[in-house]
Amino acid sequence: MTLWRLFPLILAAASLASVSVIGPALADDHDRDQHVSVMPQTDAEVKTDSPAIAGEPMSYLIDFQDPGEASRWRAINDDVMGGVSRGGMTVADGIGAFSGETSLANNGGFASVRRDPEAFDLSDAPGLALHVRGDGRAYQLRLYTDQLPQGAAYRASFQPSAGEWQRITLPWHDFKPMFRGRLLEGIPPIDPAGIDQVGLMIVDGQAGPFRLEVAWLDAMGHQSSQ
Hints:
The chain has 1 helix and 14 strands. The strands form 2 sheets. Strands 1, 2, 4, 5, 7, 10 and 14 form a 7-stranded antiparallel β-sheet that branches. Strands 3-6-13-8-9-11-12 form a 7-stranded antiparallel β-sheet, with no helix packed on it.
């Protein structure tokens, strides 16, 4: 039997053996990453209070000007394991806001949101781009595929400057397979054709309010994301 076929059994045993080691111990696939986060270079900042550019087409993979977008996101915070952090996604005036407050109490420290599953056609894209306005804190974009065991995700970290709209580009090689804060070994690179769910997370070891505004998410290199 190949190592890959044995992986789910090995992972399950390793997870049980390491529950008391990982800190904070978080439920589901959430934990403070134990590896140095990749902070990709951002493109030129868009110095405006509006994420829309005159004449720019509005045909994005995920567009918060879509009236139905608000109902497609759900919160998964550290209260699932006794923490008291709070966070969620709200939408107003065509902007999605992932916001709340992280707390390190009760061994917690994360807040996250996930979008409802949807089959995306990203096989020809070199990565993903986001148009965001942050608060100076670090965030993660998390991608889910059937390549990974349940609860694991491919994640890339980014840290936009506070108070300015920026386009963040995340090529596929920035996404690392993670499970409860641990880098998974022997896993193939992400297959863009298999991505069927996206999420956002904050787990930077800090307590306090956070706010990440998102105008859109699109395939890197797509005409609408230039």
